């Protein structure tokens, strides 16, 4: 199987995951009396970390921590601060219009602390700084454990996860670092899936699917609710089992069902490629638009809000994709560099006029 086919499946998984994230943020928990929402919560954020581990390039970064730091600072931290400032502006504007007291420093403290409930008007983007921390620590662990066996490496990541869990019982670390430590095992599982080419071994996939169904149902019975942002893990072992098994079930369904249906593939893969835009805009802008539309046309509900929030975010994304500076600020895309030869030629042409 080629690289393009592999990424095709990962894109649709990211699209499904970001859809479930937005759906969960609509308040579907109250509507469904907990069950449906908890099924989603059990694996949606773990799956994001698994996909990140799957896409992580050890060839590019394992021996080049500087390159990793600069790349992830550009693609994660620059969008994070851009989304923070954007949502802070919306928050300030709302307070001024509604004639409420403006505490100007509050959004900046939240931005620096980097924990979801502290980030004004844009809670979900805690994931960006947490993922940045996770990448750095993940790379360091892989570098210093590269001579260890698979079992030994797994043990190391489990120990680090337990450490992160223990820290979270005492204090929530800046930039959700304690969450990142817990999430490293999911990233490692993702990297192993890629290294062992598990997604392309049909017999192994079917076997893991059957096992995952049993594990996931068991975990749902014994270990809900789960909420990574608020450090609600329940039993840590069951949390890991639920996240891994649930994530694998989505991978299996995506590979053998959703990638075969052209319309579903097109929609979710597009959402997957634009997942950072949806993550950053659905909560601060998309939900406001959905609330306004619901009031105008008299239609509401979690699914309606989800579709409107995602659609409006994608429309904003179309505009962003056309403007290089916005691409840099909200997606971390490198700004185009004018070649020296082109600049020189332009200078000569200017002199000739």
Please provide a written account of the structure.
The chain is mostly helical. It is 76% helix and 0% strand. The protein contains 17 helices and no strands. It has helices at residues 3-25, 28-31, 35-41, 44-55, 58-61, 65-97, 106-113, 126-144, 150-168, 177-195, 202-222, 236-256, 262-273, 275-297, 302-322, 324-331, 340-352. Helix 14 packs across helix 15. Mean pLDDT is 87; it is low at 1-6, 29-34 and 340-353.
> Helix-strand pattern, N to C?
HHHHHHHHHHHHHHHHH
Helical residue percent band: over 70%
Describe the biggest sheet? none
Basic shape: globular
**Helix-strand category:** mainly alpha
What portion of residues belong to β-strands? under 5%
Map the helices and strands:
Elements lengths: L2 H23 L2 H4 L3 H7 L2 H12 L2 H4 L3 H33 L8 H8 L12 H19 L5 H19 L8 H19 L6 H21 L13 H21 L5 H12 L1 H23 L4 H21 L1 H8 L8 H13 L1
In short:
Helices cover 76% and strands 0% of the residues.
């Amino acid at each position: 199987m080629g690289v393009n086919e592999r990424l095709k499946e990962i894109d649709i998984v990211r699209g499904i995951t970001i859809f479930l994230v937005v759906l969960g943020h609509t308040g579907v928990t109250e509507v469904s009396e907990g069950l449906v929402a908890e099924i989603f919560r059990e694996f949606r954020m773990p799956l994001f970390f698994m996909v990140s581990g799957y896409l992580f390039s050890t060839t590019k970064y394992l021996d080049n921590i500087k390159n990793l730091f600069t790349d992830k600072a550009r693609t994660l931290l620059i969008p994070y601060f851009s989304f923070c400032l954007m949502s802070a502006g919306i928050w300030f504007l709302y307070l001024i219009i509604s004639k409420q007291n403006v505490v100007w420093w509050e959004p900046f403290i939240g931005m620096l602390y980097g924990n979801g409930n502290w980030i004004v008007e844009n809670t979900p983007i805690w994931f960006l700084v947490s993922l940045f921390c996770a990448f750095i620590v993940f790379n360091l662990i892989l570098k210093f454990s590269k001579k260890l066996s698979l079992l030994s490496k797994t043990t190391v990541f489990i120990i680090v996860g337990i450490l992160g869990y223990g820290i979270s019982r005492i204090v929530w670390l800046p930039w959700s670092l304690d969450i990142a430590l817990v999430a490293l095992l999911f990233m490692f599982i993702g990297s192993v899936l890629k290294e062992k080419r598990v997604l392309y071994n049909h017999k192994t996939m079917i076997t893991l699917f059957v096992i995952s169904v049993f594990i996931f149902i068991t975990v749902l019975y014994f270990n809900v609710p789960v909420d990574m942002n608020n450090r609600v893990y329940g039993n840590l072992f069951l949390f890991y089992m639920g996240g891994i098994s649930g994530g694998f079930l989505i991978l299996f369904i995506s590979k053998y069902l959703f990638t075969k249906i052209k319309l579903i593939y097109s929609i979710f893969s597009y959402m997957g490629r634009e997942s950072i835009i949806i993550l950053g805009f659905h909560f601060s802008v998309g939900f406001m638009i959905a609330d306004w539309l619901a009031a105008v046309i008299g239609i509401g509900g979690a699914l309606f809000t989800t579709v409107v929030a995602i659609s409006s975010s994608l429309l904003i994304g179309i505009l962003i994709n056309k403007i290089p500076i916005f691409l840099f600020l909200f997606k971390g895309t490198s700004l185009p560099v004018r070649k020296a030869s082109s600049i020189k030629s332009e200078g000569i042409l200017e002199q000739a006029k």
